[in-house]
């Protein structure tokens, strides 16, 4: 009875979307969820995994052989959803920018270009039209030069408040915060100069 309960508990640790019996490896998220995956798909999507799998591995993975990847189960599933072929769009847990940043950071670490390209394209859709500053922060942080250029013009009309700087600091990009604060200071200085010119002409 106890052994059966143990088996059930262990099976529940596998994500239901990634528990295929024909998978040849197991990924382990940092919150203890396991994902059965296919090395062929991972190797095509990621140079990191391709180089890692060039090393000798056991023919069949066991619980002890699970590969810890240092990401939450939410990020791991979203990353796999993007790189696995499918007829529908990947299912992301949220459209929030925190999960985007975590996904993009994971994509950088594992060298998965498809994740970067997918999120880069997604942020250009109409649903993000009212979030130019947040998209600009991602563009600057992850090297989307074209988007950063035209979004920088779009953000000039924004009033950069303290909470926006706090948001950018949460992205871990202090240089970007300093740049935005400098931009805010420049706009205030320009405004004062315009007011001074107006006074002088009266």
From TrEMBL:
Domain BTB span(s) in chain numbering: 23-92
Stored PROSITE patterns: BTB (PS50097)
Protein name, as recorded: BTB domain-containing protein
InterPro entries, alphabetized: BTB/POZ_dom, SKP1/BTB/POZ_sf
Gene3D superfamilies in the cross-refs: Potassium Channel Kv1.1, Chain A (3.30.710.10)
């Amino acid at each position: 009875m106890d052994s059966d309960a143990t088996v059930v508990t262990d099976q529940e640790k596998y994500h239901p979307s990634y528990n295929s019996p024909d998978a040849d490896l197991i990924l382990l998220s940092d919150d203890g969820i396991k994902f059965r995956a296919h090395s062929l798909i991972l190797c095509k999507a990621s140079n990191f995994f391709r180089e890692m799998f060039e090393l000798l591995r056991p023919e069949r993975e066991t619980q002890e052989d699970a590969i810890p990847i240092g990401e939450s189960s939410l990020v791991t599933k979203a990353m796999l959803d993007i790189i696995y072929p499918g007829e529908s769009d990947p299912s992301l847990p949220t459209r929030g920018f925190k999960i985007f940043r975590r996904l993009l950071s994971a994509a950088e670490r594992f060298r998965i270009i498809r994740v970067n390209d997918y999120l880069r394209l997604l942020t250009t859709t109409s649903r993000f039209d009212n979030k130019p500053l947040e998209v600009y922060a991602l563009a600057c942080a992850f090297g989307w030069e074209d988007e950063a250029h035209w979004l920088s013009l779009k953000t000039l009309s924004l009033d950069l408040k303290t909470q926006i700087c706090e948001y950018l600091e949460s992205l871990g990009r202090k240089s970007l915060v300093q740049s935005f604060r400098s931009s805010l200071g420049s706009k205030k200085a320009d405004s004062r100069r315009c007011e001074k010119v107006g006074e002088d002409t009266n």
